[in-house]
Amino acid sequence: MNSDMAILQKAREELQQVLVQEVLQALKKNQIDAFYVSNREEALKKVLSMIPAGSSVGYGGSLTLDELKIKEVLKEGHYQFLDRGRSGVSAEEMFRLRRESLLSDVFLCSTNALTRDGKLVNIDGIGNRLAALTFGPKKVIVVAGINKIVDDLEQGVKRIRNQVAPLHARRRGWKVPCANTGTCMDCRSVDRICGTITITEFPREKGRITVILVGESLGI
Length: 220
Prior knowledge:
single chain, alpha/beta, Rossmann fold, 6-stranded parallel beta sheet, 4-stranded mixed beta sheet
């Protein structure tokens, strides 16, 4: 790398850290604990350090968690892992595990968007992840890549409707218009994945939610 490119890269990294610190401080001001780690390996270690042995652990569907490979660790560890993703799980058992996760000691998930002023923006089809984020589990740990940061709530919703949802629907093969168009069509499909939206601004229970911000792109 020549000197000009090295200087440019250093400038990018420095400005990213300015953004990171802004978001971390905003989250803490909003009564959400927040930490920064540089990569997914450090994120995995941080998450595991926050889960006491013997804890019941539920989770919301998340490509970010998949990239951390944390489910494999939880399956082998000393935890009561509510694993609804294992093979052979019936629809009835899936529903039961989703409900049990609402009473878990620790709930893991990501967020669809994270605003610069420390708000979590999320949209779900079924709503189990949003329910757990809002109330139920004793502790919620949110892992988010740097790519999830947006300027404000409006940009957060746009990101979800016109980037996250279309990609997610297409990879799943769901029959919704956005999977074909790449943008939200405000559909009324039975497979619609934008059923409920939540904005986590200021949880009354300080520290119940912890955000681990990772210095790389994760998930969608």
